[in-house]
Amino acid sequence: MPLPIAVFWERSDVPGAEHALLAARDGLYAQGTMLAAAPVPFACHYEVRTGPDGTTVGVDARAEGAGWARGVRLELAAGRWRVTASEQGDLDAALTESGHARAGLPGCGDPDLLYGAFDVGLGGSALFATLPIRRLALHESRAGVAHRLSVAWVLVPSLEVVQSDQIWTPLGDGRVRFADETTSVDLTCDDAGFVTDRPGLARRVRAAS
Predict the structure, then answer these.
(1) Residue pLDDT, tens place only, 21-38
(2) How confident is the model at residue 209 (pLDDT cuts 50, 70, 90)?
(3) What is the pTM of this model?
(4) pLDDT of residue 208
């Protein structure tokens, strides 16, 4: 069945974009594609599902470029993450040829490190930045109450999954501050909690009238 909502973001850090089709009833289900020209040209296709309480319960992602393809699946059951991964071709060869460091392996060597993570992040995705905002209703919350989260973070394009400690703080007027050990940035959201501007990453683009 066709999904009723389309969202499009233009990348501001590298040439690229993200397009997602979604339904936001009884949780959220989305299918999307990210395109980026760096660190090597690639496409990343994803599906994500959350429960009615906003907890992410499943993610499928596939990244592919010239001469390589990788996939990862995360499934939450009884509070624990199951992570499976696949790899074809040689991403490392493409990265080193472009002057970049080798990538980690796709997936997660020890999924128990992800215990307590109720959200999944996908590097470079504005849609995934929306997940903790909607789950905690940060776009509607009073300013100043910080939420410390453990997030299952999927690096792109390697699709390596790592545990990430993050702090999300509502600022009022549809603004939310995201911070981790390397970054602090103020995001802008619409009334439904979807990110419209993530400085240094992407800005939402609406259809021309």
Answers:
(1) 999 988 999 999 999 999
(2) low
(3) 0.95
(4) 63
Kindly list the distances between the CA atom of residue 184 and the CA atoms of 3, 24, 110, 140, 146, in Å, as whole numbers in the listed order: 33, 28, 28, 20, 13
pLDDT tens digits along 69-102:
999 999 999 889 999 999 999 999 999 999 999 9
- Alpha carbon distance 36, 124 (integer Å): 9
Side-chain-side CA neighbours of residue 166 (13 Å): 26
Write the DSSP string, 15-54: SEEEEEEEE-SSS-EEEEEEEE-SSS-EEEEEEEEE-TTS
CA distance 47 to 61: 7
63 touches 159 (CB < 8 A): yes
Cis previous bond, 157, omega within 30 = yes
Reference 158, options 106, 110, 85; nearest CA is 106
Would you say residue 83 lies in a domain?
A: yes
Report yes or no on 193 lying in a domain: yes
Question: Token pair for residue 54?
Answer: 């906003």
* Cα distance between residue 207 and residue 122, in whole Å: 25
Parent domain of 47: 5-204
Q: Collapsing DSSP states into helix, strand and coil, what is residue 144?
A: coil
Using the Cα atoms of residue 127, residue 136, residue 177 and residue 160 in order, give the sign of their dihedral: negative
Domain count for the chain = 1
> CB 101: neighbour CB atoms within 10 A?
9
Please give the Cα distance from 135 to 200 (Å, whole number): 23
